[in-house]
Amino acid sequence: MSDGGGGGRDVLTIRDLDVTYFVRGQEVKAVRGVNLTVRAGETLAVVGESGSGKSTIAFTTMRGLDAAGRVMNGSIHFHDTDMLALRPRELRAIQGSRMAMVYQDPQTALNPAFRVGDQIGEVVREHTEMRGEQADNRVLELLGGVNLPDPAGVAQRYPHELSGGQQQRVLIAMSFACNPELLIMDEPTTGLDVTTEAHILDLVANLKEQHGSAILYITHNLGVVARFCHRVAVMYAGEIVEEGPVSRVFSKPAHPYTRSLLTCIPKLDLSKHDRPLSAIEGQLPSLSDLPTGCIFAARCDFAEDACRATPPPREQIGDDAEDTVSCHRHRELPPFEFERHIRDVDQARADATSDGALQVERLKCFYPVRRRIIEYVSGKQQKFVHAVDDIDLELGRGRTLAVVGESGCGKTTLGRTLVGLQMATDGTLTFEGNELAGLARDRGPDLRRRVQIIFQNPDATLNPQRSVGDAIARPLELFNLVPESGRAARVTDLLRSVNLPDNFADRFPHELSGGQKQRVAIARAFAAEPDLIVCDEPLSALDVSVQAAILNLLVDLQKRSNTAYLFISHDLSVVRYLSDLVAVMYMGKLAEVGTPEEVFVPPYHPYTEALLSAISIPDPMIEQENIRLEGPVPSPVNPAPGCRFASRCPRKMTVCETQEPPLHEFSPSHRLYCHIPREELDKMRPVIRYAGEETAVV
Amino acid sequence: MSNGTAITADDAKVVEQPAVKKPRRVPLSMIIGGTIVSFFVVLAIIGPYVTPYPFDQFHFKHRMVPPSAEFWLGTDRYGRDIFSRVVSGASLTVFMAGTGTFIGVTIGVLIGMFSGYTGGWVDEILMRLTDIAMSFPGLLLAMLVVAALGANEVNAVISIGVVFVPKVARVVRSATLGLRHIQFVEAAQVRGESRAYIIFREILPNIWPPIIVETCIRLSYAVLLVVSLSYLGLGAQPPAPDWGLMIAKERAFMVTAPWVVFAPASAIVLLIVSFNLLGDGLREWLAARKTSDE
C-alpha cells in the first residue's frame, strides 16, 4: 500500500466517455459518463466484475475498439493529443512508444512463430533510432530488466518454450521498450500463480519508479489494487460508482457496492464456522435496458425509493476533487469496519479429528514422456513426469480437505485419480473400506455413485445440447435412484437446493450465466447422492460476488448431506474459509498438511510461508511479510533426489539438495516435510499479521 | 490489435441478456444452393412423369435436330429427346450420389467418432489406414472398387461410399478429439457411462455442424464421381439416361451438334455448384449460430 506517489502532470484524461456496442439490433451501453485522470508516476486501478466495462475503457483508449463498439460521447486526451481524432499513422507513432498495453493472456499477445527477442527487437527498431547491434543490446537489457535469467538465451526462444510468468515478463519488457509515458495493463496477472503474480507486480512497481510512467491498471482483484495502486475507480455496469485514494476507499468505502465487494471476498481470518459470506444478491442490470435511478439500486441493501427514481449525483468526499462517490445515501451509511476473528489456535487444533473415510496411501501418478521413434528403437529409458509422487492423506465424512499449490503441483491429477479419470501408478485409494482402483468404468456402480466431481470451467461442464433438467436427471436414471415417475419432482428439489427456480429444468446451458451453470453442475453432482465430491477449482472462473454465493451454497449443502469435499484451489483465502484440513503441494509432493489454524500460523513449511506472503489482501490493517521465491522451477520429469523445493527455497541448506526431507509431526493432524530443525521452524514469524501485532491472522 | 478486439466483443457479450431472440440472417449462398438442390431433388422424384417423351423413344425422322419447340434441347443421334433424357437422368444421378454419400458419411462418422474417442493405438492404426486410402486419387480408388466388383449402378454407389469413408472419418475424428477431454464428457466418464452412450449422446449432438457441412461437400463430389464412372462405362449402362453416359456416348458429335453434350454437362455443373453453395452457406450459418449461442 503506497500513497501519495502521484502528483505528476496529467498523462491521460478521459472526460464524459460513453461507449456503446451495437450487437444484433441492441444497443449495449457498456460505458457511460466515465471521467478518469492518470498522472505521471501514478497507478490508477479500475476495478469491477465482468461486464462492468473496465476493459472497454482500456481498448477505447488504445483505439482498439472492435467494429461493433462506438464512442458516443466524450473525449480521451493523451497529454494534449486528442486520441479519438488521431489518424492511423499518428496513432502508430504514439502506440508502442509513448503508450503501451499489456494484455491479460500473454499466450495470444505473443506471436508463436517468432523468437521473443525478435519480437521485442521489432518494437525497438520501429520506434527508436537504434539499429543492428545497438538494438540487440537494448533487447537484452530489457529482458534483463524484467529479471529473466539468461536474457540472451530467452531472446532466442519461441513463446511456447517459456512459462506463463516468463511470457508475461517478455510482454512487460516489450511494453517498456521505449519507456512509455502511459502503460495500460488489462488483468496482467489473472492467469498466473500467486507467487508469479507477486513477482510481476514488484517488477512493474520497480519499472514505474525508474521511468515515472503513468499506469492504468485494470483488474477484478481488490487485493492487488490494495498492494500496488495509488488510486482506484470502482466500476459497476458501465459507470464509475466510487473513486478515490486506495487508502481511503479500502478503509472507508463510501459506496454500498464497494463495501459489498470488500466483504464478499473471504478473508484469511474467516472460516465457514464463523458465518456465511455476504454475497451480493441479484444480477447485473441489462445494459441495453437501463434502470432509471441508481444503477446499483436493485441489488443494494440500503436502497430506498429515491434511489430508484433518480440517478445519484457524483459527490466529493473530503478535500480531494478526485475523491468521489455516486450514491444518494453515502452519508447515512453505517461506518464500515473489517471484522476481526481472533481465535484460540490450540482450541481449534483439538477439534481436528478425522474418522478417515477417504484414505490416500503412498499415491503415485506418473505420466510417461513421449519418446521419439528413434529413442524408442535405440532403447532409451522411458522417462516419467512425476505429477503426484508418494502422497498420504486422510479425509473424514462431511469434512473438507483443501489441496493448494501452484499450477503443475499435481493437485488436479490427485483429484482426477480419485474420481477415476486417470489411473494411479502406485499406491492405494480407499473409501470407507472400498478400494478406488482404476478408471471410473472399472469401479462398481455404487462406488461410482458415491464419488462425484465438480469442474472448473462452467462453460464446458454442461453439454450444450441438453437441457438442465436432462443433465440433472441423468444420474438419477443411471444409478436407479428415483423411479421414472418421480424424477421430475426430484429435479425440481435439486434445483431448489441450489437456489435456482423450477423452470430452469427446461433451459439450455447457453441461456445461463456462469454462476448459474456452476449451480447446475453442483446439482448434478449432488443428484447422485455422493459421499465425496472432488471440487476442481469450481470458483476460479467466477466473479467475486458470485463466488461468495457458491461458497455459501457448498457449505450449506455439506452441512445437510454430510458429504466430504476434496477442494482443489489456488486461492488461499477461499481455502481458509471452506476447509477443515489443508494440504499444501509442491511438484507432486506434500509440503505440509494440517488444519487451517495449523498451516496458516507458524511453524510453516518455507513454501507455505512464501505462498502466504504472495497473496494480496484488500485490508489496510493487515501487514504481510515480503518473501519472494527466486530460482528456477525444476523439471517434473524424473526429478532429482532431495527436496523438490530446494531450488527456490529461501531457507535452503546443503542437505536439502541430496536428501528427501524428513517428516515433522507437530500434532496428529499437522504434518510438515522439511529439513529445517523443529526449533528453528518454531521461531518463525507470522507472515500475515494485524498491523502492529505479532499474532497471526487466521 | 486483433487480440484487443476479441476481448471487447466478449465484454459486450457478458452484459447482454438472453432477451428476445432475433432470427439469424440466412446467407444468400444457402438460399440459392438450397433452392437449386431442392429443385433437382423434386426433379429426381417426379422427372419420369413430366417429360414430353419417354427417355428412350427414338424419333428417326428427327435425328440430331437442334433445340426447337418440339424438342426443347434437341435430339441425339437416335432422335431421342435430350430434354426428356436429362430430366429422367436426374433421378439416377441424384439417387446414386445421395446413397453413396449416405453410406460413406454414416460409416465415416462411426469410425471417426470411435477412433477419436478411443485414441491411443486404435486411433493411430485407423488413421494410418485412412491415410493409405486417401493416398489414392478418389476416382482411381472408385474405379478400382468397381473393376473388382463389376460395373453397374450398385457397385458404383458402393465405390463412392468406400472413397468417402476415410475423408469423413478424418473430419469427424478431429471434431471428436476436440470434445474428448471436455468437462461434460469427463463428467459422463466419472458417472461410468458406457462408451456408446458417451459417443452417441454426449459427443454426436455437438458435432452435427461439421458433419452436415461435410455431407454437402461430399454430395457435390459424389455427383462428380457418379458421372465420371458412368462416363468411363463403370457406372450406369446404356440405355440408362445417365448424364455422364450421355456425354460419353455423344461426345463424337460435339462439334457438329453441341447441344447433345451441352445439356447434360450444364446439369452436372449446376448441381455441383449448388451443392457447394449450400455447403458454404450452411457452414457460415452454423458458425454464426455457434457464436451467438455460446
TL;DR of this structure?
The complex is a heterodimer of chains A (698) and B (294). Chain A is α/β, with parallel strands linked by helices and 698 residues long.
Helix/strand-derived category of chain A reads alpha/beta
Task: Name the poorly predicted regions of chain B.
Answer: 1-21
Point out poorly predicted stretches of chain A: 1-6
Approximate shape of chain B? elongated
The separation of the N and C termini of chain A measures 21 Å
Form type of chain A: globular
Count of helical segments of chain B? 11
Oligomer: heterodimer
Strand content of chain A: 15-25%
Mean pLDDT of chain B: 84
Mean pLDDT across the residues of chain A is 87
Number of helices of chain A: 24
Element-level helix/strand string of chain B: HHHHHHHHHHH
User: Helical proportion of chain B?
Assistant: over 70%
**Estimated structural class of chain B:** mainly alpha
Amino-to-carboxy terminus distance of chain B = 24 Å
Jot down its keywords.
heterodimer, A: 698 residues, alpha/beta, eight-stranded mixed sheet, 24 helices, 26 strands, 22% strand, disordered N terminus, B: 294 residues, mainly alpha
Q: Overview of this structure, please?
A:
The complex is a heterodimer of chains A (698) and B (294). Chain A is α/β, with parallel strands linked by helices. Chain A is 31% helix and 22% strand. Chain A is built from 24 helices and 26 strands. The interface between A and B is large, with 65 and 35 residues.
